[in-house]
Amino acid sequence: MAIDLQKLTLRRLLDTQSNELYSKLLNHYFTGVNSVLFDKIKSFYKANTRLPSANEILSLRKDAGLQEYIENQIYAEDNISEEIQNEFLVAQLQDYYI
Questions:
Q1: pTM for this model (two decimals)
Q2: How far apart are CA 63 and CA 76, in angstroms?
């Protein structure tokens, strides 16, 4: 089974609320619905000067499809990997983008 690094990165970002990780990520590292979710995180950060938790993103309830995606795709058990370091995730997303 392949690991989806975009989903894993978004989950890590929501779980840890790491400003360091966030500062290394760019919109164009994400595609499709992952890009929409990253934009929501970015908008929340701009409005609140902090990163949202998963509960805060889910509580926005503006987009039922995105909420379902977060619950079923981002928070799937496949997107947990403590062994993968943030630097590796960012490097792989950069490589994929290039």
A1: 0.89
A2: 19
To the nearest 10 degrees (0 to 180), the angle between helices 5-16 and 32-48 is 20
Distance CA 63, CA 4 (A): 23
Residues 97 and 22: their CA atoms lie apart, in Å, by 17
CB 78 within 8 A of CB 3: yes
pLDDT digits (tens, 9 = 90+) for 32-89: 999 999 999 999 999 999 999 988 988 876 778 888 999 999 998 888 888 899 999 9
Cα–Cα separations (whole angstroms), residue 85 to 63, 68, 75, 90, 92: 31, 27, 18, 9, 11
pLDDT of residue 2: 72
By residue count, the chain amounts to 98
CA distance 8 to 72: 13
Looking at this protein, which amino acid is placed at residue 98? I
